[in-house]
Write a structure and sequence with these properties.
Layout lengths: L7 H7 L20 E3 L26 H4 L5 H17 L4 E3 L22 H17 L3 E7 L12 E3 L2 H8 L1 H10 L3 E4 L3 E2 L2 E2 L4 H11 L5 E4 L7 H7 L11 H12 L4 H18 L12 H18 L1 E5 L10 E5 L1 H4 L19 H7 L3 E5 L11 H16 L4 E6 L18 H13 L3 E6 L14 E6 L5 H10 L12 E2 L17 E3 L8 H6 L4 E3 L10 E11 L2 E10 L5 E10 L10 E11 L4 E7 L6 E4 L4 E4 L2 E10 L2 E10 L9 H4 L16 H8 L20 H5 L3 H17 L8 H12 L2 H7 L6 H11 L3 H8 L3
Helix pairs in contact: 1-10, 3-4, 3-11, 4-6, 11-16, 13-16, 14-15, 21-22, 21-24, 24-25
Bound molecules: beta-D-glucopyranose.
The site of beta-D-glucopyranose has 7 residues, from loops.
């Protein structure tokens, strides 16, 4: 495609979408393509559909947080191909996923869409996914680039992350995937990073992504995230999605004409859109088939296989498996109305979801069932609770095992809102406790997109974490409980004992736009492990019905390239799979560094008694740190212990390597930023603001302090309403319109909550441009003027003057 042949008007048109899900065709001149969510199934919608959850029927696979626990790259590739097969059938060209943001806090409402707290694992899995989808001729969109770690004020908050942490943690998974899988598109996130919105962040999109990492694909904005198209195009963003109802096109024209946005940048962006459409278009003569029943059936079996490999057995004193499949009592309305996915833009409409009682019956159990609690509220329903307790007592008298199903509900976590509590809902916790105190043979089956307080479950004899395991969660669960399937999932994140123990608790989701990532590198296990903070379940942990032995380690080294070889033997009496993990223990230094880091892994399936040789190449950056002084990685000399084991800290084999090819790098961080070091053995570091400021090395932002006179279209209606009566009225009207549109749903329904959060906390620009043109732009301008104290000008604007 020669960009010289494209008219100026067409170029302007091409860089914004056509409707919600298509690129522009410029009146039929160019081929356009369909983009759809993603990531754990296909959420195809027709353009005119307004409600998030009304999409075409498709297979709902386990969500990212679940499938990550399989640590099975082949299986992730299979799942990706399964989703791609449905995209192909529906003639969707680009799948909006995977999401590879790093989990900063277990309470992020959207953690279920992300893989891990570890960038090596997240990047490896994202690369598998992208390569597999793209091998099928469907493009992907790696999201949300970058530093998008919370849902609270997600559209306006500024993630303040020091450069080393950005590089080693928050950008690392993206970098890995860009280099190893070249995703067709990358989605720039809503938030600001170090002061600038991701879509307008030239450092992020051009200096790092394109110039340093060599990215050749297209950058698309998250839906409604582009609030200044001219600046976004100049910064390296190619496509604004969705169509902004023409709101931004005029501004872009003005910016190009004035030279604020270069023609070169516009050419790049328009050409990237044309090239993407050319590469991923469907031929005109290709017949649309749609997703067939056969395809849904095939993918349902695949979804089940993935769920079986992803569930994590966290505790088992030997009660599981329930081999004789006698009578069981199931308690928990989440067993009947199973939670198998999260809410928001990844919401899938599967053809069929089996309930747990049905699945256990099908597995050969005789099932008694009690609701026990309501999952749409967290207050106790006395009558349900009473019946469940009585049933549990009876079960005890008759020696019938009790399975309690519970965990996080749709109301506790979802896109657009973070969790308010680390615990499971109060009604469930209370009931669980009452039953556990009475009943010795209790098994806890947990749902949720993220870790929660598992202390109550200590009273159970076994705990099986099913995460959000997709449409086939029930048969997969019944298979594991019965022993037909041997569980092999291992945690891709840590389960801390309490929220108080988490590293980002001081600054996470505090309803401020100025978010300091004070804990820096110390997130997830990097924090707990380095500072010896006891956790409930460690990163990489998961049990099996069999046992594995590790022997014969060999470390093969060529400079800093290291490969480890060892044998794993299934020493038990049932077949099973083991996720062998390799951590590198860093030597002690005076600069900040995690104690141990995951540098390689492999999942191996072994029949009972079988032995296999496992060979793992360690991450290329195993001995490196990012040096901000020279803006590059540096290999640090020293003695490193290569630890091979079945989870973080469960070291079965180890070998030490002495790295001499790098530098004797040392820096006295201990004196300069003392907050990142524990004062004494056994103490926790404080991550104080002073140390953070020095680490961050630039001014802290103060977006919260915007004053009248400084407001613009990038402020939220919620903020503007605090300073403008007109703003207050508009906010009220828009919210009541949203409630009316969703009148069949309660106000705390996840879909409704997500929409209302976006109206209150999204930029005014987003509300106007995504509102389908319902709100005139001059009304928005009038709100901004009035919040800035310019009442007369606001009135004039309202009347179009
Ligand atoms: C989400 C994206 C999603 C897009 C389109 C946004 O609100 O953040 O992940 O792909 O909507 O549905």
């Amino acid at each position: 495609m020669d960009i010289k042949e494209v008219s100026f008007e067409d170029k302007l048109r091409l860089v914004t979408g056509q409707g919600k899900w298509h690129t522009a065709d410029c009146g039929g001149k160019y081929k356009n393509i369909h983009l759809s969510d993603g990531p754990h199934g296909l959420r195809k919608q027709d353009e005119e559909v307004m409600q998030n959850n009304l999409s075409y029927t498709s297979t709902c696979f386990p969500t990212a947080s679940a499938v990550a626990c399989s640590w099975d790259t082949d299986l992730i590739a299979k799942m990706a191909k399964g989703i791609a097969s449905e995209a192909k059938a529906e003639q969707v060209s680009i799948l909006l996923g995977p999401g590879t943001n790093i989990k900063r806090s277990p309470t992020c409402g959207r953690n279920f869409e992300y893989f891990s707290e570890d960038p090596y694992l997240a990047g490896t899995l994202a690369s598998e996914y992208v390569n597999a989808v793209q091998e099928e001729g469907i493009g992907t969109s790696l999201k949300h680039f970058a530093g998008n770690s919370q849902e609270t004020l997600r559209m306006t908050q500024n993630s303040m992350i020091d450069e080393r942490t950005l590089r080693e943690i928050y950008l690392r998974a993206f970098e890995k995937c860009v280099k190893e899988a070249a995703p067709a598109t990358i989605m720039a996130s809503y938030n600001r990073i170090n002061g600038q919105y991701a879509c307008r962040n030239k450092w992020l999109l051009t200096d790092v992504l394109r110039n340093e990492w060599g990215y050749k694909g297209l950058v698309v904005s998250d839906w409604g995230a582009c609030n200044d198209l001219g600046e976004a195009v100049e910064a390296g963003c190619d496509l604004e999605m969705p169509d902004s109802n023409g709101f931004h096109a005029g501004n872009l024209k003005r910016d190009v004409e004035s030279g604020k946005t270069s023609m070169e940048a516009l050419d790049r962006a328009a050409l990237n859109v044309l090239n993407l459409a050319e590469k991923y278009k469907y031929p005109d003569d290709e017949k649309y088939v749609g997703i067939t029943k056969e395809l849904l059936d095939t993918n349902a079996s695949l979804a089940r296989q993935i769920a079986e490999n992803s569930a994590v057995l966290l505790k088992n004193d030997g009660i599981l498996p329930l081999k004789d499949k006698g009578e069981i009592l199931i308690i928990g309305s989440m067993a009947k109305d199973v939670r198998y996915q999260g809410g928001g833009s990844s919401h899938i409409k599967p053809p069929f979801v089996m309930s747990m009682p049905e699945a256990f019956e099908a597995e050969g159990f005789k099932v008694r069932y009690e609701d026990g609690y309501r999952s749409d509220v967290d207050i106790v329903d006395i009558s349900l609770e009473k019946k469940a307790i009585e049933a549990a007592k009876k079960a005890k008298e008759e020696s019938i095992p009790v399975l309690f199903f519970g965990g996080l509900t749709d109301f506790s976590e979802g896109e657009g809102y973070d969790r308010k509590s680390f615990s499971m809902p109060e009604n469930q916790e209370k009931l669980f406790d009452k039953i556990a105190t009475e009943n010795q043979d209790l098994i806890f089956v947990a749902f949720g997109g993220s870790p929660f307080d598992m202390k109550p479950a200590d009273k159970a004899r076994a705990t099986l974490m099913m995460y959000l395991c997709g449409e086939s969660v029930a048969p997969a669960c019944a298979g594991i409980i019965s022993g037909k399937v041997n569980p092999s999932g291992k945690l891709a994140e840590t389960f801390p004992f309490s929220y108080e123990d988490t590293p980002a608790k001081e600054t996470y989701a505090k309803y401020t736009k100025d978010v300091e990532y004070r804990e820096a590198l110390f997130i997830g296990y990097r924090y707990y492990d380095t500072f010896n903070i006891p956790v409930h379940f460690k990163f990489g942990f998961g049990m099996s019905y069999t046992t594995f032995e590790y022997t014969n380690p060999v470390v093969v080294r060529n400079g800093t390239k290291v490969k480890v070889r060892f044998d794993v033997t299934n020493t038990g009496s049932v077949d099973g799979a083991e996720v062998a993990q390799v951590y590198v223990k860093n030597s002690n230094h005076d600069f900040i560094r995690a104690a141990r880091e995951l540098r390689g892994f492999k999942k191996v399936f072994l029949k009972a008694g079988e032995k296999a040789e496992v060979s793992i190449c360690l991450d290329d950056r195993s001995f490196d740190i990012y040096d901000v002084a020279r803006h590059d990685y540096v290999t640090v000399n020293g003695a490193y212990e290569i630890q091979i084991g079945s989870c973080l800290g469960d070291v079965r084999l180890s070998e030490t390597v002495d790295i001499t090819e790098g530098e004797d790098f040392n820096r006295d961080d201990r004196a300069f930023i003392p907050g990142y070091f524990a004062k004494a053995e056994g103490e926790r570091p404080k991550f104080d603001e002073e140390s953070f400021k020095k680490l961050y090395g630039r001014e802290l932002s103060r977006f919260d302090d915007t004053k009248p006179g400084e407001f613009d279209m990038c402020n939220s209606l919620g903020d503007l309403a605090k300073h403008s009566l007109l703003g207050k009225i508009v906010l009220k009207l828009v919210i009541s319109f949203a409630y009316r549109m969703m009148k069949d749903k309660p106000k705390d329904d996840p879909e409704v909550m997500m929409m209302v959060e976006a109206i209150k906390d999204g930029t005014l620009d987003l509300v106007l441009s995504e509102g389908g043109g319902a709100l005139p732009y001059n009304l928005g301008e009038a709100v901004v003027l009035s919040a800035n104290g310019k009442k007369l000008k606001a009135i004039a604007k309202l009347f179009g003057k």
